[in-house]
Amino acid sequence: MSLTIKSQSKTRPFINTDSKDLSVEKLNLILFGHAAFQYLYAGCKLRVFEILFESKKLTKEKLVEVMELQPYPAKVLLLGLSSLNLIIKEGDTYRNADVIDSMFQQKNWKIFYDTVLFEGEIVYKGQIDFLASLHQNRNVGLRRFNGDGDTLYKRLSQNPGLQSVFYNYMGSWSKLSNPLLIDSVDFSQFGKVLDVGGGDATNAIDIAEANATVKITLLDIPDTCEIAEANIAKYELSSRIDVKPGNFFKDQFPKGYDCILFIHQLVIWTLEENTEVLTKAYHALEPGGKVIIFSSISSDSEDGPLMAALDSVYFMSLPADGGMIYPWKDYKTCLLKAGFSKIEYIDCQGWTPHGVIIAEK
Ligand SMILES: C[S@@+](CC[C@H](N)C(=O)[O-])C[C@H]1O[C@@H](n2cnc3c(N)ncnc32)[C@H](O)[C@@H]1O
User: Looking at 104, 131, 159, which one is the last position of a domain?
Assistant: First the structure.
């Protein structure tokens, strides 16, 4: 006996025909976005994509065996991954989506994987408090992380597993975006560069490797400086990159630099705080010195890009009081208030909505 499934399209409740408007499919993806992400996260942690890249394609039986899952959970996972087109079912076999395979081919998988782990193990927890953060105008999501300190960064070292998830991601995200910065700015014009909140030193290392004469000082909180120092030593760049532990809100900026960098930094704070640190940078620079901001940036019309908007939920909910993927015009206002002039904008047009802003004292 065969089973007939009737299609009852007239029971579909929402239909729109305007292609610029929201489609039902996109609405469903928003409604169940949290579930879609869980499939991606589980697929990454269970190495489904790595296994399929190595094998090209696998039957369901073989895939279930290598995932080391029981048949029922494997059935759920494969339903989700294939419905989301993360993996493609062709007859009795599964393969990766082309976009996933291309990340392996281009050696970018680690960058994507580190980002998925950061989203799953840090961002996800804090974003639960997005609505409360909107109501209270502060980063309520920080309460999900143990420890003292009013920012996520101060608490990471009290959560060692999470500290490596964070800096693996931050290093990977920077590795992905740094070619955009290095292509946009001629760092050979600078003698000494100060990298404010320089993290694990991925940026300083990439800039130093691309420019043989430049010297860089990385300023960060003491716990992060230890991670940076280990990386700088690994790349044998200790003679050209030094590390200065400190707090850029409390301490004066050191003098003697002709370039001050803020990379993935001013997205964390309020615009008032950004003006405060840019003013400190202005006073530390010699006349003619430059400040460079490199981060994701949203459009001045404040309606996109989508990645800028989605990333802003994290900055609203978790790392510190304030912060979002700000539009260009907000940085311009902060820079002018700080005293800078000759402001230049470079829209990098990459996968991420990165931009570079250069201003002169
Ligand atoms: C989003 S991460 C960016 C790291 C690095 N710039 C990058 O692009 O990979 C922000 C960094 O700022 C540092 N930071 C936060 N508050 C700070 C403060 N008050 N003083 C010094 N560093 C700080 C954090 O420890 C963290 O490494």
Answer: 104
Nearest atom in ligand 1 to the alpha carbon of residue 202 is: 9
Could you read off the pLDDT of 58-103 as tens digits, one per residue? 999 999 999 999 999 999 999 999 999 999 999 999 999 999 999 9
Element (H, E) at 100: helix 98-105
pLDDT tens per residue across span 105-144: 999 999 999 999 999 999 999 999 999 999 999 999 999 9
Q: What's the domain range around 246?
A: 170-313+324-360
Ligand 1 centroid distance, CA of 219 (Å): 8
Q: Which of 63, 88, 104 is the last residue of a domain?
A: 104
Q: From the CA of 264, give the closest atom in ligand 1.
A: 8
In the β-sheet with 215-220, what is the strand arrangement from edge to edge?
A: 241-245, 215-220, 192-196, 259-263, 290-296, 354-360, 341-347
Q: Which atom number of ligand 1 is nearest to the Cα of residue 199?
A: 27
Q: Which CATH number do you get for residue 208?
A: 3.40.50.150
Number of domains in the chain: 2
Show the tokens assigned to 301.
């019309």
What's the chain's average pLDDT? Answer: 95
- In angstroms, the CA 225 to CA 246 distance is 9
User: What's the whole-model pTM score?
Assistant: 0.95
Counting from 1 in the atom list of ligand 1, the atom nearest the Cα of 247 is 20
Q: Minimal CA–CA distance to 51: which of 80, 70, 78?
A: 78
Residue with the smallest CA separation from ligand 1 atom 12 is: 197
User: Which residues in 125-134 are b (16+ Cβ under 10 Å) and which e?
Assistant: bbbebbeebe
Residues lining ligand 1, Cβ inside 6 A: 151, 153, 170, 174, 197-199, 202-203, 219-221, 224, 247-249, 263-265
Cα–chain-centroid distance for residue 269?
A: 16
The residue contributing the CA closest to ligand 1 atom 18 is: 247
- Ligand 1 centroid – CA 197 distance (Å): 4
